[in-house]
Amino acid sequence: MAIQTVFNPNKIPDEKVIFVDGVTGRSYTFGEFKHETKKFAAGLQDKLEFKRGDVLAIFSTNQVDYPIVLFGTIAAGGKVTTANPIYETTKLSYQLIDSGASVLIVHPEVLEAAIEASIDAKIPASRVLLFGDKEIKGYKPYRSVLITDRVIEPIYYTPEEAKSTTAYLFYSSGTTGKRKGIKITHTNIVVRWAQENSMDCKLGPHSIIMPILQLCNGWGSSILHYVLILVCYSLLVTI
After folding, report:
1. Which regions span the lipid bilayer (predicted)?
2. Residue 154 belongs to domain with CATH number
């Protein structure tokens, strides 16, 4: 079973606000989130010729558009690798090269390191895009490049494909040598969701979650925060 198949197991109403930026106050309802995710996926395919199996890297602090890029990439049939925003150029370069990333979405605060690393990884400047709405040093916001009116439905995977298809490429801390990429398949994620959903979850539609972990962290990104929201439809406040 693929991530897309269980995208809304508890029938979250479209008008329910599920993401709020704790700094700016920007928010997304579930309906807006779904629509923006599908538009992002369409933009990847249309504007960047992003194909099934391609890798997109996210290099950013926690902020409200993070889940749109994350799930939009999955919807387009791609893999996501998330990099810690405190990485200097060398560590980021290594992850971009090792993961085979062909697109990089960056928070403006860490753009300098991203520029150098993208050059090392031979990712063209046209495929390095920003969170936010401002162009900086010729690097454009992803929204101005990718988002149009077109939407696509998420790529379909058979049950067998879901077992072997990588959704996320998280990287270890490298305490015993070089940092290693950890492949998380669609089935891995769905099984974890099922475990959470089978528990006596104390969270619900009136709960508010404030993530302490960085969303680039494997636990924070793929297991804890988004799982709890999409299973219990609580509100996530990004900080």
Report:
1. 218-237
2. 3.40.50.980
